[in-house]
Amino acid sequence: MKFRWLLAGLFVVAVLVVATTILDRTPLRPEYCVAEVDGTRTQVDLEQARWASLMAAVAQNRGLPARATTIAIATAYQESKIHNLDYGHLDSVGLFQQRPSQGWGTVEQLTDPAYSIGAFYDALVKVPDYENAEITVAAQAVQRSAYPEAYAQHEPAARTLASSLRGYSPAAFTCQLNEGVGGSATAVLDDVNAAFGSLGGVVQGDDVVTVFTGPPEDTAIRGWALAQYAVANASRLGITGVHFDGRRWSVEDSPDGWVEDPSAAADTVTITTR
Description:
Elements: H1 2-24, E1 32-37, E2 40-44, H2 46-61, H3 66-80, H4 107-110, H5 113-124, H6 135-143, H7 155-165, E3 173-176, H8 185-196, E4 202-204, E5 208-212, H9 219-232, H10 234-237, E6 241-244, E7 247-250, E8 259-260, E9 268-272
Antiparallel strand pairs: 1-2, 1-3, 4-5, 5-9, 6-7, 6-9, 7-8
Helix pairs in contact: 2-3, 2-5, 2-9, 3-6, 3-7
């Protein structure tokens, strides 16, 4: 009899544990990022967001116009769907499917996005009047593709991503993410400085990064470029919140995008990791 009661008790405990686990399990939501500018909506996955935001940051660091970022993103869309590929036609690899045999660099270099993006911009700035050229003309002058007209189809999406990630369209880029483990504030600051050049910034405690966005005439654009870069890389870096210019984005409320936050400073981007 005692054995039966023991089995019954164990059964009840097991049922309660399973029920509690099911009730406590928060359904995972799809993870993606969206840029929306002037009625054009572009959705990308997290890897695409990472590399598009890096193209924007590198261009800003080099003092290149937003058009350069649009051309780079459109080219990467066509060549790799903005994924860092370790394969391709013949010996093509990386975001732009650059070929070691054509003098672009080694396979190791070309599968390093920072290097391949830099190499693309090095070639682009040598194209006469590329800022005013059609994307097919500018991209083809760099890539020498067998299908030069294909780049044009990606221009609307590329322009939307470039406008938001370069900071010209405030609060226009957002990501929907699931909550995860917070990251390192120091690692976030190191990543931001590597992408944009030395912005300085201060780590407060273990979980807050603040970055002053520069002189007044550049504050809004530079600030939104940095803020939206942080959102694009939030999943990878364990960023839980970004605050700037009266707006806030958080992982917890990420389906809502950027929401009003009167406490968010207009001259400082604040990034939290917990």
